[in-house]
Design brief:
GO terms for molecular function: magnesium ion binding; thiamine-phosphate diphosphorylase activity. This protein has nine helices and eight strands. By secondary structure, the chain is an alpha/beta fold. Strands 1-2-3-4-5-6-7-8 form an eight-stranded parallel β-barrel, surrounded by six helices. It is globular, with a radius of gyration of 16 Å. The mean pLDDT is 95.
C-alpha cells in the first residue's frame, strides 16, 4: 500500500463488539484510519469511547479519527478529524483544534463537493454513498460506481475513500471502478467475526492491487 492507497478505512457505528476489541483488531491489521461515528451518544460518552480506543491505538500505525466534532477531537487528543458537509468548515476546524489534530478528512456526495473539497486540501476525501445504505438517518443520493474514476481524477494526489453500502458481495465492482480505498460500515459492525472479515477484505484488496 502507498500513501494514497491505504486500502481499508474503518468506522465504528453501533458496534457488536467492544470499542477496545475493535481497536485491537484494527491495530493488528495496521488499519490506517479508525473513526468513531456514534451519533446517538452524549458528548461525555463519546469522549469515554474515544479514550478507550486511543488507549489501544496511540503509538501504532492506526490513527484515531473523531467524526464531525472539532471540539471533541481537540479534547480527546484525536489524530484526525472527519468533517461532513454540514459541519464546521475545514479552516475553522483547524483553528478550533489549534494544531493538536494532525489530519483532516472531508465527506463528499457529488462532483461539485469533490471539487470544493480539493480546494481545501484535506488529507483524504470520502465519497458516497456508492450504494444504498441505512447507516445514516438522512442518506444522500446514491452515487453508483460510475463516478469513481472522475472523482479520482479530480482528487489527484488526495486519497479517496469509497463509502456507502459496500459489502463482500459488491466490493469487487467498486474496486473494478478504480477505487483503492474502501469503507464498509455495517459489514464490520454487525458481526462478532470482525477479525475474519477484515482479514478476508484485506486479502481482496491485495489481490486487486
Amino acid at each position: 500500500m502507498t500513501k494514497n492507497n491505504f486500502g481499508l478505512y474503518l468506522i465504528i457505528t453501533n458496534p457488536s463488539l467492544p470499542y477496545k476489541e475493535i481497536a485491537k483488531t484494527a491495530v493488528k491489521y495496521k488499519i490506517k484510519y479508525l473513526q468513531l461515528r456514534e451519533k446517538d451518544l452524549s458528548d461525555r460518552e463519546i469522549l469515554k469511547a474515544a479514550a478507550e480506543i486511543i488507549s489501544v491505538t496511540r503509538g501504532t500505525d492506526t490513527k484515531f479519527v473523531m467524526n464531525d466534532r472539532a471540539d471533541l477531537a481537540f479534547l480527546s487528543g484525536a489524530d484526525c478529524l472527519h468533517l461532513g458537509q454540514d459541519d464546521v468548515c475545514l479552516s475553522d476546524a483547524k483553528k478550533i483544534c489549534k494544531g493538536k489534530v494532525c489530519e483532516f478528512g472531508l465527506s463528499t456526495h457529488n462532483i461539485e463537493q469533490v471539487k470544493d473539497a480539493v480546494k481545501q486540501n484535506p488529507d483524504y476525501i470520502g465519497f458516497g454513498p456508492i450504494f444504498k445504505t441505512p447507516t445514516k438517518k438522512k442518506p444522500d443520493p446514491v452515487t453508483g460506481t460510475e463516478k469513481i474514476k472522475d472523482v479520482l481524477a479530480i482528487a489527484g494526489d488526495i486519497p479517496v475513500v469509497a463509502i456507502g453500502g459496500i459489502n463482500k458481495e459488491n466490493i469487487q465492482s467498486v474496486l473494478n471502478a478504480g477505487a483503492k480505498n474502501v469503507c464498509m460500515v455495517r459489514y464490520f459492525m454487525d458481526t462478532s467475526d470482525l477479525d475474519e472479515r477484515i482479514s478476508d477484505t484485506l486479502s481482496i484488496l491485495r489481490k486487486h492491487s
